[in-house]
Amino acid sequence: MATAVPAQHSDIHAHSRYWVVPAVRAVVALAAAAVITFTRDAHTAMFGLIVFGVFAIVDGLATGVLSALLAGRRITRVLFAVQGAIGVIAGVLALVLSHSGLGLFLYLVTVWAALTGILELYNGVRERGRDAAARDWLITGALTAVLALVLLFVPADAVLAIGLFGAWAVIVGVFQGIGAATLRSAAHERTPSRGAESGS
Prior knowledge:
Blueprint: H1 7-16, H2 20-37, H3 45-70, H4 74-96, H5 102-126, H6 134-153, H7 158-199
Helix pairs in contact: 2-3, 2-7, 3-4, 3-5, 4-5, 5-6, 6-7
């Protein structure tokens, strides 16, 4: 019969693989940024809603599902699950209502950015000093909240609005990629010490 793994050890092992979450989110954000960058002549409201819709659904699923499996504290997992659900709902609305025009694009992206940015920022503040990923959550949340503020005051221009979303995706994608590499390196450095402790 297999030996049961203590719950605390299981949680530590899962948390050591949390770097997968920002890595996947980085790929999703950079993919959206690449689509926007290389299709500048197609920046209509419908195009923006479709790109944002696909991005929000995939990012929401990655944030919610992977964080639920790999994040540390229970409340952190719950908050990221809510954040992921908001992304999926916003993405579905964007795709279903993709013919609705620039007003809907601005509204959906602004509301999504405000809600998810505040949630991620709150997670970062609450876990600061207790979780290695807290600083990344703080910065990503702040950048997303800033996107919401910028879109509130941007002129009603599809090219500009979609370009701003693309710029946000580049910055956040690169930052999350760096964060994932840092977390992965830190997890690998901790692994030998845990192995030594268990063998002693």
